Fold these 3 entries.
Entry 1:
Amino acid sequence: MAASRPLQVRLSGIGGQGLILSGRMLAQACMTGGSYVAQSQSYEPTSRGGVSRSDLVVSEDNSAYPLVTHLDALVILDQSAVGISEAIIDTDTVIVVDDDLVPKPPGGALHVTRLPLIDEARRLRNPRVANVISLAALVILAELCPFEALEDAVERLTPAKFRVRNMDALRVGEKLAQRQAA
């Protein structure tokens, strides 16, 4: 029996939004289920106006090519990050964008879900948890891995002093996605 096509995911925005950490959390959650994960990243500091991204290729076996060539799932947390993914998305790509910071998401007949990610993070009194909110929403909407595996990964990879904040953010993202799916 042939292995299925690898799942390809990108988390994108600007430097300082925690996207590299979110990528590590998602990679850990996927590996918990026995999948192989190749992760790559690009980071430019916010001070330089830089775009940041974390890419994952998730497969049942060692993938022959560890870099994304087509996206199955995508998060965009800043307008400046829209262009870096447009060539590798299509109508099957599950796209989650912040409805405030991404006023012009990728166009066309695409499946774009606009969510108040930054607003919800501010409601939690910490705009820096938008990455975890978006990750939770994407995992549910794109069915990337069992949500329990993501919970475990977030709990294990978050420093103790931020753990409660990130777990609260995870719950907010879960609720946003569940409302969207209903």
Note: The beta strands are 7-14, 36-42, 51-59, 73-76, 94-98, 111-115.
Entry 2:
Amino acid sequence: MSYLQKYADKYKAVLYVVFRVLVGGVFMIHGAQKLFGWLGGQKVPELMSLMGAAGVIEFFGGLLVLLGLFTRLAALVGGVEMLVAFFMVHFPNGWNPVANKGEAALLYFAAFLVLFVYGNQKWNVEQSLLGKETF
């Protein structure tokens, strides 16, 4: 077994928590930009629009993932949103995700697949509140 494999095995729980927190936190920032105009974003004028709904999903879904609360459910909803975003907004501008600016949507989709499969893992609010992972 290689040194890298031993290191990865030893710290995989911690590394997964870092992954979950980073994905959730950055996704939440995207939502905060849309909902509140924070962090260099522009507030969506109409909350009952597709962009408003995206902001709600991103902010609250990101918060849930970050906290480790209903992570699988939040990842499922976020992943569906990212597929919709890619095919509605980016794909009409061409198939290449770098050229059509859809690479973030595809990367989030991939991250949400991982989160959906692995769930909360360690250090999560759901375990503290409910004693188990419910979704």
Note: The chain is about 70% helix and 0% strand.
Entry 3:
Amino acid sequence: MNCPVTFLTAAAGFAADRVLKHFASRTEGKRSYLKDKVTVKKTTNKGFAMNKCEGRRGLVVAVSVVAFLAVVFLFGITLKDDKYRSKRPGAALLLAGALGNCYDRIRHGVVIDYISVAPLKRIFFNLADVLIALGSLLYAFL
């Protein structure tokens, strides 16, 4: 993956996350799909995963910004050195997801989550979370 495509991938991931969060924030109630295997419902997360440190907004924002800056640094390394070319897709997805959730925490004070899948019905997540998980796996194994 060349540098412009890597940037476009990150930008597209961030944009898709913003669009889905926008629609989720305007959706009322709960919808189920695939015989109740997938649930779509707007929830908010004031902390880290599953609302850890929910009452400590300053800490949550600070850690999110530091994590985002670490991802930016990692992204820069993968773009600068061609020996890391295979890691660029993972870095792009990581950057998109980290930016998406960090943006929400800074701008809104919460992260909008909206999807849950069986058997983890009580855990809601968003596209940024998926991009972070997928990007981490790609970065680690490519």
Note: The two ends are 12 Å apart (CA to CA).
